[in-house]
UniProtKB/TrEMBL annotation:
InterPro entries: AAA+_ATPase, ABC_transporter-like_ATP-bd, P-loop_NTPase. The keyword Transmembrane does not apply. This is ABC transporter ATP-binding protein. Residues 5-230 form the ABC transporter domain. Keywords: ATP-binding, Nucleotide-binding. One of its GO terms (molecular function) is ATP hydrolysis activity. CDD domains: ABC_DR_subfamily_A. The lineage of its organism: Bacteria, Bacillati, Actinomycetota, Actinomycetes, Micrococcales. Pfam families: ABC_tran. It comes from Mycetocola lacteus. The keyword Chloroplast does not apply.
Length: 296
């Protein structure tokens, strides 16, 4: 499988602030990638660089071998949908859908109308009067109906209710299966979205903390819980990503897999071992308590 996207040593500074620090990863063509991390982690800056809307301070971004910045053929193949899309004050959704093909060469008007109906978006109402959820729905319509070979979505869920989010998931999976393309989805709704992903990037403080195929997640970490004193003794010398405690009890997220010896020791003290989800890893890797837990 060829790589659609290649980043090598990408750094982006804004004055004295480093938003991205030496980011490197590749993304295969046709992947649906979850870009995850807490607010301020650097996700939006990263998407802007991939979309060719900004230049890195150092390093390179290549899409199918080309830098996207000011390269018209590459830019025509990218669509970045933000959570704060802006439209002219007098625009209706019908206006938005009518003008979209001028900027999105793979635009599917029929699919756009189908999506708008599915989200129950009124076509002739001024976008200026829309709720947060309705604005998110319009942005998702633009993202999916663009059928851009590289589709980037930055927090498209804001304000959407659970039914609308489910409709989005179903539409995304179905349409990407029928019209393959590479998708990067930045979201805080990790538990709802992780079944969509075949690849996961977790970002924190401008660095990639995890770059993994979804199948690798079960082997990356596990949790062990039980009596506080037993858990602390069990995890001595292990890489504890996160430690949660309540009086007398503790739960630790540990990097790696639990071998037979550890399983036997845990069983002997009545500790419980569980696998981790993508959401668990996002929380653990971005936790301020990780360093404290390792020290403990």
């Amino acid at each position: 499988m060829t790589n659609h996207l290649v980043l090598d040593g990408v750094t982006r500074r804004f004055g004295s602030h480093t938003a991205l620090d030496g980011v490197s990863f590749t993304l295969p063509t046709g992947s649906i990638c979850g870009l995850l991390g807490r607010n301020g982690a650097g996700k939006t800056t990263l998407l802007s660089l991939i979309a060719g809307q900004d230049l890195p301070s150092a390093g390179t971004v290549h899409i199918n071998g080309h830098s996207p910045f000011e390269h018209a053929p590459t830019l025509a193949e990218i669509n970045l949908v933000r959570d704060n899309q802006r439209y002219p004050d007098d625009f209706t959704v019908r206006n938005v859908l009518t003008i979209a093909p001028r900027f999105l060469p793979h635009w599917d008007a029929r699919f756009a109308r189908q999506l708008a109906a599915g989200f129950r978006v009124p076509l002739d109402q001024s976008v200026k009067k829309f709720s947060r959820g309705q604005l998110s729905a319009v942005a998702i319509v633009l993202g999916l109906a663009s059928r851009a070979p590289l589709t980037l979505m930055d927090e498209p869920y804001l304000g959407l209710d659970v039914n609308a989010r489910r409709y989005f998931h179903e539409a995304l999976v179905r349409d990407v299966a029928e019209h393959p393309r590479t998708v990067i989805l930045s979201t805080h709704h990790v538990e709802e979205s992780e079944s969509l992903f075949d690849r996961v990037l977790i970002v924190d403080s401008g660095r990639i903390l995890l770059d993994a195929d979804i199948e690798e997640i079960p082997d990356l970490a596990f949790t062990v819980s039980g009596r506080d004193d037993a858990i602390r003794e069990l995890t001595v010398g292990m890489e504890v990503l996160r430690l949660q405690t309540v009086p007398g009890l503790a739960s630790a997220t540990i990097r790696g897999t639990a071998d037979d010896a550890f399983l036997a020791r845990a069983d002997a003290v009545g500790a419980r071992i569980q696998g981790v989800s993508v959401a668990d890893l996002v929380t653990a890797l971005g936790s301020d308590s990780a360093a404290e837990a390792v020290a403990a």
